[in-house]
Amino acid sequence: MQYYAKSKEKSLTIAEKTKLKRDFNDIIESLEYDLTEEEKRALLSIEKNLLKNACDSQKTLKEHLDETTNCAKLFFENYSQYFTEREKLLIMEACRNHDIGKANLLFQMMVNPEIRKFQVKERQIPHGILSALSISRKELKSKYPEITDVDFSILVTAIYYHHTREGKFEDNQIRKYCSTYYEKEAKEFLNQPNWKLLVSNRNNLLFEKNKNVEQVFIDQEVWEKYALVKGMLNKFDWSVSAGELEAEVNSDLEKKILKNNIINIIRKKWGGKFKPVQKFMNEHTNDNLVIVAPTGAGKTEAALLWIDGEKGFYTLPLKVSSNAIYQRIKEQYDYKDISLLHSDSFQIYLEEPRTELEEDAYTKDKKAKLLAAPLTISTVDQLFKFVYKALGTEIFAANLKYSKLVLDEIQSYSPRVIATILYGLKTITRMGGKFAIITATFPPVLGEFMKMYGLEEGREYQMRDFSVESSTKRHKIAIREDEIDIKEIVEQGMKKKVLFICNTVSKAQQLYEEIHNEIDKVYLLHSRFIRRDRNILENEIMNFSKNENANGIWITTQIVEASLDIDFDVLYTEMCPCDSLLQRMGRCNRSERYYPEEANIIVFNNENGIRTIYDPDLYKRSLDYLKQYESIIFTEKMKVDYINQVYDTEKIRETSYYKKIEEFLKYFDEMKVLDYTKEEVDKEFRAIESITVVPDQVYEEYQNIFEKISEFLRRPNIGRNAKSILNSKLNSLTLNMNLFYGKLPIGVDKEVIQNTYIHRANLEYEFDLEKKQGRGLILEKEKDEDCFFA
């Protein structure tokens, strides 16, 4: 009998093709004025491919196993130096054996056209389990004497759980199933007449996914080895299943195209002379690094030089800053082999102009999710899921083993995420990966926590602070205890670029309204705009910043703090903890265009956002220590001294900030495999559940889009690519809202719009597309403020 890996794709009948063509024509015609040219072209291309209905010949099980193994072989031709011989051996064995269990008769009845007509109602035992019980430890050790019992446990567990399957199966149940549906088929498929099922292999599992079994704690070193084998198996298996014969595309290891492009740009701009931070990172490409350097020091280019053509991941705190770096590398550094990975990256791909020869949005998105590009720009939540040891997250740890990881502005994260990153860095370093933290500020307490968790300066990483070498004189501070002077801000905005950063959205909206009554050239940016409008505003603020002749006022929240390349003449800001405050200062006189004779950083101590957003202790310490720097040039060295004073380890041990990081690090130390599912990890990173909402005003304006797409998504045979494009279209008209204790804010519908994940919100929404002005979503109750990111 022929054995197959999966079902052959269903061929469409003439009637189904006719209906499919009509469905696509209907959606494109009905949304003619609402779809972009790229969206129309993408849908027409999908329709054309679906109508071809040219299914590939059905893959046999042997072909799939061979392709997965060959995918691993091709990978090791380029990346062998990052792995030990034993690691490679275990990964290759996992690839050769992971799907043998698919030879069982019940699985073949599902996928094999010759026997599909037979049906059995008995519950199928997952093929991963059967595959793991098909491996003989005796034969493996005979072939590879260096294999230890722990190695065998790692291999069996990786195969057993290479798919996450629910279900409890007793030994006798497995034996009975195999004697009926698997033993004969396994002997035939493997061509081994003496083959035997080895149920005893279950005793070698590192853990068991069974609610009735108490989970055991696994040694961290053993888990790391398991995560490597399981993660690499998933990478090769998923790549082949997605139609890719290679797991890594366009490696930059040999040609170092990106690095050479940056060097050429430096040569043209500065005569080939590296800035100090660039020189240092280029000379320490084999070291883990913590680099502190002021805005404008060339940290981004330095980090890319440090990656040195190796596989790299570049992480930033916010999607807007990730998008900006992604575009910068593609356009300024002329490097196209780059992926973007965050929750809205598909929409970015969809909006990118492309030629007929370039990959479409779905292909780019697939490559990003397979972690296949030589360089990926990402948010940390996409990569550090492995810290929670959930099944299905091992691929991230495995990829980071042979990669270089850049962490931009680590101090910008919450204590929970900081703890996740620090624990993850320890894991990555132990596995063999490298990291570089690049930041304008590095609180000493973070260095202390790194040391506590096995990352000691001078041993596991090198630290260099370039702030003390900087002679820039960009900022002078004034602290105000009184009310915000609207008249002063308006006067400044008539002749300068003025930025006002608020701690909360409601305060930003209130301030915008007050100033808008006095002057027209005022704009607002925060998280309570639908994605389309927020993207427009993000582009507008960057264009405004670049325009040398512009003047006016932008009011924002902390979403502009990190890695957004904007430069204003004057900054007004509400007081906040020192790390955030210094980030905000980096948005003013960024390129040192002038010497500040008067204060160009005006800080209002109004305590807005204390407790709900910022730690009260850190707020007070930041304010107290800031006062000594008032009315003088605030140098880069002073900024380092300032943050060191505020975050002095001994003096903040009793703060909630310190205790939360300490608590989460301890929590990760005690965590067991299977404490979390992959889906639960996504929520854990946010520490809160969220939903997607569309304001009624937006829904009513674009009702045709919602109704037509909602109806289209119900139709058969339209393919996931078309669904992705149209869901992304709906997504652009929505925004995210947090749920506290599962409760919806007043005005938000409990039910979703049919066939979507979107809730309607009966709340006022204000935005003028032509003027690019408005307050965004306006809440009825101030207590609902916390339901949105800043």
Question: How does this structure look, described?
Answer:
By secondary structure, the chain is α/β, with parallel strands linked by helices. The strands form four sheets. A seven-stranded parallel beta sheet has the order 3-4-2-5-6-1-7, sandwiched between helices. The chain has a six-stranded parallel beta sheet with strand order 8-13-12-9-11-10, with helices on both faces. A four-stranded mixed beta sheet has the order 15-14-17-16. The chain starts with 13 loop residues before the first helix and ends in a 12-residue tail after the last strand. Helix 2 (37-52) runs antiparallel to helix 32, helix 3 crosses helix 11 (220-241) and helix 16 (345-351) runs antiparallel to helix 17 (361-369). The longest helix has 22 residues, at 220-241. It has 32 helices and 19 strands.
